[in-house]
Amino acid sequence: MSQKINIAPEAFEYMEKVTGAGGVEVKVNLPKEKIEKINSICDAFGNDPGELINVLHEAQHAFGYIPAEIQDIVAHNLHMPVSQVYGVVTFYTFFSMTPKGEHPVSVCTGTACYVRGAERVLEEFRKELQLEVGETTPDGRFSLNCLRCVGACGLAPVVLVGEKVYGRVSPDGVKAIIEEYKK
Predict the structure, then answer these.
(1) One domain for residues 113 and 80
(2) pTM of the model
(3) Domain range spanning residue 23?
(4) Which of 45, 75, 95, 113 could connect to 118 by a Cys-Cys bridge, CB 3.0–4.6 Å?
């Protein structure tokens, strides 16, 4: 059963008022360009349900995060329930349903990093960026997250800024890392 479902862009290109917590109304909109990009990502993997994680990686790389609207289109293209896509997105910490900053800062809190002071490094990033874990600065430049392990235990404690790895980071080195990205 390799039949492809083509989602007409009009099916998702709409403005809808959704009442959220506290009675706040939110307008949901997914532009045609995003729909076409998601469709092309799914096509590149043959719309194969077994390629879900690869499709999600590409979608997150393209958009920076994977909101519900993108999950809907992926589910339709891969012939699977949206709940299955949502389950994968929420299970793996790499995936995010909220936008990340231009420079996402991730502090490894795996065992080796934790033992070598990752918590103090994380606290220094919180202080310097004035953020809690999971938040993004108001200007959208930085976001702060934790990872469980990046596989660079010999460099503990490890910090990633985007895809750049910083090893043996001390709380004193945090300011210099941030300044590198403020330029």
Answers:
(1) no
(2) 0.63
(3) 9-91
(4) 113
Take residue 37 and report the two structure tokens written for it.
């990009």
Alpha carbons 39 and 114: distance in angstroms, whole number: 41
**What letter represents residue 74's amino acid?**
V
**pLDDT score, position 29:** 63
In this structure, what are the phi and psi dihedrals at residue 3, rounded to the nearest 5 degrees?
-70, 135
* CA angle (87, 91, 93) in 5-degree steps: 140
Query: Is the model's pLDDT at 23 over the cut of 70?
Result: no
Of residues 18 and 57, the one with the higher pLDDT is: 57
Say which residues have a Cβ less than 8 Å from residue 29's Cβ, sequence separation at least 6: 13, 14, 15
What is residue 126's three-state secondary structure? helix
Give CA–CA dist 56/42, Å, rounded.
9
3-class SS shares of the chain: helix, strand, coil, % to 5: 50, 15, 40
* Helix or strand holding residue 89 (H, E): helix 82-91
More confident residue, 27 or 141: 141
Judgement on whether residues 61 and 127 belong to the same structural domain of the protein: no
